[in-house]
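Dear Dr. L.,

I hope this message finds you well. Following up on our conversation about the binding site, I have prepared a predicted three-dimensional model of the protein together with iron/sulfur cluster. For your records, I am including the exact sequence and ligand specification that went into the calculation, followed by the structure tokens. Please feel free to forward this to your student if that is useful.
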Amino acid sequence: MSLVAPTFEFASYESLSNAELTERVRRIKAEMGSRLLILGHHYQQDSVIELADLRGDSYQLAELASRHEQCEAIAFCGVHFMAETADILANRPERLAQRGGKRVTVTLPDLAAGCTLADMAGIDQVEDCWSQLGEVIDVNDVMPITYVNSTADLKAFCGRRGGIVCTSANARAVLDWSFAQRRRVLFFPDQHLARNTAKAMGIPLEQMPLWNPREKQLGGNSPEALRQSRVILWQGLCSVHQAFQPEHIAQMRAKYPGIKIIVHPECSMETVDAADLSGSTGRIIRVVEESVPGTRWAIGTEPNLVERLKRQHPEQEIFYLGAKVRMCGTMMMIDLPHLCWTLENLAAGTPVNVIEVDSETARGALDALQRMLQVK
Ligand code: SF4
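The resulting structure of the complex is given below.
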């Protein structure tokens, strides 16, 4: 990680206009060419996503970071765990060997851009859970699965135990893969994605105990409940998606008869059950793109994406599902001043906000990520 002082201080960027910042970002892109890759998550604001070389959801971006061979630096316009994943994949041992040991520099324009869902499971809590589970069930028969929205040390925890990472795009395939090998799974940190996916597979709710990491004994469960379990859920959630409620769906249906509702599987089970469809960010985009003109949609996911879909598809009528618009505050931290500041320092050879996962954690996390990329 670079300890060199930045050439440019952030404060001088805050007063610049968007037009000037955009022009300066474009200049750096032209200067660095294929050596620089700007990756943008679909939840980013327009002014930023328009400057991304590639955009996608967590799964697509992980794949892109694993495949791209030319670049020397990645500016990740997303949140912290995504930049960690990009670092692990872009700097995996065989890629480092191909580049003679030279690392791809991965930067996150604002280090404060975390994910409140990822923060709901800490490595100490998960290790404690695993050891308590070992007192009542055979953990050799439990597959640890971490949602990609998690820190690298949780991915490493899974990787070292034969476990795997999943995204909202492949959660079903990952659960199928897991059950082909082990009787149960421990899924963290998002309870809703796990519950919604397992329920759709026919697993009864009684076999999905909820582990509350704040409870001292067995996460608040009886030994019997854990012995009966197939999917042990972690008590974590995304505050952005949790906000969509079944009553919002009922209100939309009352106001616009025939409207179709699609929500992200990080929404609660009640909301997913009340919707017509649920799917990852990538799936939501595809479903809208493939709909016939005149289709009416209410979409339950991050508002930056919903607003963009509205503009891109004037042939359809698209509404944001919730009563009150709820942005992802951490995604919003990546703005033009931070992006421009990061890129200009990168081009000057004094990178700032470099994300570099330590090699031991990266090794374990890579095992879990590679298993995910192989599951179809
Ligand atoms: Fe995390 Fe939710 Fe924001 Fe996604 S929308 S980055 S899960 S807080």
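In brief: Residues 79, 115-117, 149, 238, 240, 302, 328, 330-331 surround iron/sulfur cluster (CB under 6 Å).

With kind regards,
A. P.
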